[in-house]
Amino acid sequence: MVGVKVDGRLERGEQTRRQILRRAAEIASVEGLEGLSIGRLATELEVSKSGVFAHFGSKEELQLATVRAAAKIFLDQVVTPALDLPPGLARLESLLEGWLAYSEGRTFPGGCFFYAVQAEFDARPGRVRDAIAEAGRGWTTLVRDAVEGVPDLVADPDQVAFELIAFLELANAQSVLYDDPAAYRRARTAVRSCLDRAVR
Known about the structure:
By secondary structure, this protein is mainly α. It contains 9 helices and no strands.
């Protein structure tokens, strides 16, 4: 907008915050959220420790911000393109293929960020676990609603969504653990078979 002056310090601060969170999500996808430290991020990104601390204030706040940043990346890459399509089979297929491409293309070096951190926090009550669980529930609900929106569905949407998500997550796990790229091909075959059974 003409005549509006942007504060360069604020802009630089926000850019630094984005860089910190991107690197934090990359680390957490491999080493977990407990692998994050303000000192490590400061060293790797060549910024002051006090500067990183000023953005977050505590390790828990850093972890929560990392979960939110990873969710935003996932939303942009997987969810938003699918929601541009009308409800139906094409939207569901876009969500599923988007997830596989996000994992297979190593958006995060450890594969799916949320798959990596779920096991770390699933039995640990607290704000970080709640944030991870909320993201997981949101994805499950999204897939379930997309399944329900498919015309001529002849199966239980909750069961179909459960199976589809299981195929995706197993492909991610086998690819990361066994360095097996064929896991994604098998997942795509399993997804196709599941949809063929579920839709008349």
